[in-house]
Amino acid sequence: MAKRYPAEFKQNIIDLYQHKIKSASELAKEYGVGYSTILKWVSGSQKSPVNGLTADEAKAQSKRIKRLEEKNLILKKALGLLAKD
After folding, report:
1. How far is the C-alpha of 43 from the C-alpha of 59, rounded, in Å?
2. Strand, coil or helix: what is 3?
3. DSSP classification of residue 6
4. Residue 65: partners with Cβ closer than 8 Å, 6 or more residues away
5. Which residue, 60, 3, 66, is CA-closest to 34?
6. Cα–Cα distance list, 52 to 39, 45, 48, 49 (Å)
7. How does DSSP classify residue 84?
8. What CA–CA distance (Å, rounded) separates 59 from 55?
9. Which stretch of DSSP H or E encloses residue 13?
10. pTM beyond cutoff 0.70
């Protein structure tokens, strides 16, 4: 099972890495987090030049859009049923 880390902890690691205070391997050893996990957090926190969103923000927006499209479809079907009566 994947280990969950608090958002504040992740942000602290990202800040230390991005401000070049410590390397990813140093952070991995010091905090007991996988090297690849740190790199994933850092890459997920960087904004895309295309849409100005981080990978996490883009994923959240995509989920939100999908959920709204599903609600919209339900409302269209309900309107169709009410119109028949």
Report:
1. 13
2. coil
3. -
4. none
5. 3
6. 20, 11, 5, 6
7. H
8. 6
9. helix 7-18
10. no
Sorted by sequence, the CB contacts under 8 Å of residue 28 that are 6+ apart come out as 34, 35, 37, 38
Residues 6+ away with beta carbon under 8 Å from 27: 13, 16, 17, 33, 38
Convert the pLDDT of each residue in 1-51 to its tens digit.
678 888 899 889 999 988 888 899 999 999 999 999 999 888 877 766 667
**DSSP, residue by residue, 16-64:** HHHTTSS-HHHHHHHHT--HHHHHHHHHHHSPPTTTS--HHHHHHHHHH
> Are 38 and 17 within 8 A, CB to CB?
yes
**What is the token pair recorded at 27?**
């952070």
Distance from C-alpha of 38 to C-alpha of 79, rounded to nearest angstrom: 48
